[in-house]
Design brief:
This protein is of the alpha/beta class. The protein has 7 helices and 5 strands. The chain has a single domain, classed as P-loop containing nucleotide triphosphate hydrolases (Rossmann fold, 3-Layer(aba) Sandwich). The N terminus is likely disordered.
Length: 193
């Protein structure tokens, strides 16, 4: 796939839990890039209010099927967006591949989930490694820091297995991380400013 000739390139910001993805997405939004925000919490919160403490851990397949549907909608919607030639990229806070990386981490078989990742390719992914200094759990993020390291490795593997160009963005200030991402996109002729 020659991503230099495509319009509306799909770029994923990914990594283990608590690695700073949302702050990067928020910064890109402020720079007027089109971004799809993480939607896992929209699924987790209502279930928590219904008494399910950790929806993904308690019902990983059910949770994943809902998440696939919602991320697939984001992916399809992104293909319909008209963007400027200067900024022809759309950012996603996690991609469809992350769902299957989490299921691999949980050692859950998903053979019965009828979904082909190859039908939903991303042009590039930026992966953020675990960062102990900023890591914290909350009512929706239950994983320990050690678990976030394992999840990071599963995510890294699934993007590589699916031959998605992957770049690691080291811990730094939000602004410097965004500059690293934009610099990399410019080097790959995906943005032109």
């Amino acid at each position: 796939m020659d991503i230099k000739k495509k319009n509306n390139c799909k770029i994923v910001i990914t990594g283990g839990p608590g690695s700073g993805k949302t702050e990067i997405i928020n910064s890109l939004l402020k720079k007027n890039f089109y971004c799809f925000e993480e939607i896992s919490r929209q699924i987790i919160r209502p279930k928590r209010l219904m008494g399910i403490k950790n929806f993904f851990s308690e019902k990983p397949i059910e949770f994943s099927k809902i998440l696939i549907k919602k991320r697939k909608q984001q992916y399809i919607e992104s293909s319909k967006i008209s963007l400027s030639k200067k900024k022809p990229v759309i950012f996603f806070d996690r991609g469809l591949h992350d769902i299957f990386a989490y299921l691999n981490y949980k050692k859950k078989s998903y053979d019965h989930i009828k979904f082909k990742l190859e039908n939903y390719p991303y042009d590039m992914a930026f992966i953020l490694p675990p960062w102990k200094e900023i890591y914290k759990t909350d009512s929706e993020r239950k994983e320990t820091f050690q678990e976030s390291i394992l999840i990071f490795n599963y995510i890294k593997n699934i993007y590589k297995e699916n031959k998605i160009k992957l770049f690691e963005i080291k811990p730094d200030t939000v602004e410097n991380r965004v500059l690293q991402i934009l610099h990399n996109l410019k080097l790959n002729n995906l943005i032109n400013f």
